[in-house]
Structures are given as C-alpha cells and as structure tokens.
Design a protein that fits this description.
alpha/beta, 9 helices, 12 strands, binds adenosine-5'-diphosphate, binds magnesium ion
Amino acid sequence: MQSPQIAVMFPDTGLSVRDAAPAANGNFVQLRQVCKSYGENIVVMDRMNLDMRADDRLVIIGPSGSGKSSLLRVMMGLEGIQSGEIAFRGEPYIYGADAGRTKRIDTNLQKQIGMVFQHYTLFPHLSVLGNLILAPTKVGGMSKTQATERARTYLARLGLESKLHAYPSQLSGGQKQRVAIARALMLEPKLMLFDEVTSALDPEMVIEVQNVMLKLAEQKMAMIIVTHDMHFARSIATRVVFCAGGKIVEQGSPAEMFRSPKEPRTREFLEKVLHFD
Ligand code: ADP
Ligand code: MG
C-alpha cells in the first residue's frame, strides 16, 4: 500500500512536487549489506548499510574514487550489485545477483527516483521541451499535450519559459542544469539524487542551481546529494554521510560532522576540504 501523495507548491518558484510520505518514516530507503565491486580489485560498497527517512536530505561526502557516484547509480538501478538488498518505501527493489534470488529491479519503484548528473545529460538533438516530455510520454503514460502542459509549468516556475524551444547548445551551464532538474521532476519523483551537479559550472552559475535545490528542500523533497561544496552541504543537509573504503565511516548532523567529527579519517578529509584557519 502506498501512502497518499500530497501535492505541494513552492511559494515563490511555484514548483510542484509531491510530498514523499512513506508508510513508515524510518524505512524510506534501506540498504542492507550491499556489496558492489568492479572486477576483482575495486570494491566500492563493502556490506554497506544505510537508512534514510522521508524527511532526510543526505549529503554524501568522501574522497574522490570512494564510490559516491557508484552508490547513486546503484540506487537508480543503472548498475547492479553483487549482493545485498535495497528497499524503497518499505519494498525491496534491487537484489544482489548472488543473494539466492534473481536480480530484480522493480521499475515502478525506480520511476519514483529522479537523478541529475554532473555533466549535462540533456539530449542535444532535442529542444528543452523535447527533453522534458520524453520520459513522461514514453514511460510515464502521459499524452503529449499533458506532458507539454506540465513542462511549461515547470519551466515557467524555474524562470526558463523563454527557453521552451531552445536547444541545449543555446543554454548556459546553469540553465542546462536547471532544465536537467526540471526534467527529473517531470515524473514527480519521491526521491531525487544529485551527483555533483554544480561541479562543472562556472562559480556565478552555481548559486542558481543550488537555489533550486534549496527550494526543493523547503518542500521536503527527499534527496541524496553528492557534493564537494561543504558550505552548501551545511545549508541543505539533515545528515552528512562520510564514505571511504566502501564503508560509511561516520554520519551525523551537519553540526556534528563539521564541528566535531569523531573518526580520524573524517577529520583528515574535512581538514583538507574545509581549510580550517
Ligand atoms: P566517486 O564518485 O566517489 O569519485 P566512483 O563511484 O565514481 O567514485 O568510483 C569509485 C571507484 O570505482 C573508482 O576507483 C573508479 O575508478 C571505479 N569505477 C567507477 N565506475 C567504474 C566502472 N564502470 N568500471 C570500472 N571501475 C569503475
Ligand atoms: Mg563521482
């Protein structure tokens, strides 16, 4: 049984998202003993456990190569895992291939998760409108008219209505990322995954994208965010998760993690990226 979805609106951007209310708050996302490796030697998830509540905004931090992107791609179903289980809103949807069961990805659950990547993944041969309506018409069962209507609404609310017929090559980096976010929202996901979405942007464009994410946060969108921007992490996270060596080394509130991390590895990492005086 899915809990009722409550449509909510942003007061100033007017962005419409659905309030993600799971059956039980504590089991919105669960990773259990997840193992993921590439070949023999690269272990990116080593019996990883993670719990996320519907009102959480997890910020994942960790050294380059520690498997942050792999974690998001796995959750999105873009890559398989060797063993373990991932559940979303109380229902398992990804199993490890050697867990004694056939690997299964429940596409209905997967459709409730949206993802935005570091490098713009807009289709260059499609207009902004074409990019936005592609998934809703192909997999979301919407008519072209309905999807176009929704695309107009999202773009208007993101201040991008004049770009409806523009092609990605005619947009700035910040505009492209905002279109990518709008596109991910078109299927009204319950969980959004952001993988370093501002890392490739010029500094003046970072804020416009972060502001969109902060608005989503205000409306209680559940999010998992990978970022190297610790200032942004502090402003958006309900919980900060430090990953290294395929494990979650430490997690806590932004205040705990940034002021007084307990684990030496967390401290060492944060000292490098925070530039303490
Ligand atoms: P992060 O996002 O934390 O930098 P990634 O998840 O991108 O880490 O990568 C973790 C490790 O897995 C790295 O050593 C990377 O080279 C390796 N890796 C990532 N994707 C693949 C792949 N498709 N095939 C082989 N190795 C990969
Ligand atoms: Mg990465």
